[in-house]
Amino acid sequence: MLKNSLLKRFGFTICCLQILLAQNPEETPIDQSIKSIVFKNQAFEIQFPIVKLGETFQLHFDDLNGDERNYYYKIKYFNHDWTASNLFQNEYLNGFDNLRIDNYQTSFNTLQPYTHYKLELPNEQTEFLISGNYLLEIYNEANKMVFSRRFLIYEEGGLVSAGVFRTRDLEFYQTHQSIQFSIFPPKGEFFRDPQNQLHITILQNEQWNTAINDLKPQYNNGSSLVYRYDAESRFEGGNEYLFFDTKNIQISSANVSFVELNRLYENYLTTNFLRRGYPYNFTQDLNGDFIVRTLQGSENGDIEADYSWVHFSLSAPLLLKDQEIYIYGKFNNYELNESNRMYYNRALETYEGVMLLKQGIYNYKFVAKTPQFELYNAICGSHALTENRYLILVYYRYFGNQHDSLIAWSETSSFEIID
Fold this sequence. Notes:
Elements: H1 2-21, E1 34-40, E2 50-52, E3 57-63, E4 72-78, H2 89-92, E5 93-95, E6 99-100, E7 104-106, E8 115-121, E9 126-128, E10 132-139, E11 145-154, E12 159-166, E13 176-184, H3 194-197, E14 198-204, E15 207-213, E16 219-220, E17 225-227, E18 234-236, E19 242-245, E20 256-261, E21 265-269, E22 272-273, E23 290-292, H4 301-304, E24 307-315, E25 324-328, E26 343-345, E27 350-358, E28 360-369, E29 374-375, E30 389-396, E31 405-413
Parallel strand pairs: 2-11, 21-24, 22-24
Antiparallel strand pairs: 1-3, 3-8, 4-6, 4-10, 5-9, 7-8, 10-11, 12-13, 13-17, 13-18, 14-15, 14-30, 16-17, 19-28, 20-21, 23-28, 24-27, 25-28, 26-27, 28-29, 30-31
């Protein structure tokens, strides 16, 4: 009896450890001196690190300490749902990780000193063997992780055809968008057990926090798998992002009301208002993205773009009860933390926030958070006509494999939404 009891306890402990180890990886910067993280396939305009197996991509970031510190990178592999994989490192990497990033430059002619680091992958020391989900972790000299970022490697194992539709539910007809798509296997082949072996992830504007996962095919017409969901593949349309431009940091420009020079330049943006309840108005945006750029010197944004304090303000006559307001965009990885939280100024009846940002063109919006929920469109409103970019990712576990290959992906836009 005692032996059986101990075995049960041991088994329970192992299960708990497996659950803890299988939690989704975080992408939270730890060291506040790390800024302007850009991680992308150089062939794409959007900042989303997805590349074909064998192609290169780059990570850029700044360290505001400006003293040429040593940083190291480590790489981990994950299943389609970002749970920990059972693979050993030599099954997904050829070479080594935990290597020092040796490509760096100090800033030139900037008020804010910083060191700019660049890492290109794959490289002579690190090559990838399989497609799927990866996590890149950056560590300092004390072996403390300073930040991490997800990236995807795909192979050609199918095709995806997708479109954005208005929802058939009249309650959400004016505010939501539904994604419908079909998946085609390679010619002459078929997917074995697609209900269990094929996995789908849909991202709106490259945001993992609102992803839709694991839709099952509704129809198999012999040549393709068809996904014609409505509610199950439905996203809030949101609203077009606000933007500002600080590529010329010394003067006011688009949506920059005025500029002050203290120790650093301070850019005060035009006060925004609550857009919820207002009619939809199309404006060109980057779907939450940002571009580092400067007009100073030789216009090398990596080392010549300066940093400034950017002041945000949101007019709200009444304090929004039980809600915290945050500045939201890809420049802070769509995170809600103290660095981008806004505080209410009762004298001016505005929410105010300030962030240290590198020169460039930025998209942003305001989101609300309650103790229970994150309300991404409560401040700016939601419209079915809003232009959004959607990525459909297709994972497949081939017979006999212990990992989920990313066999296809497709990009579609709601610019021409279908009724």
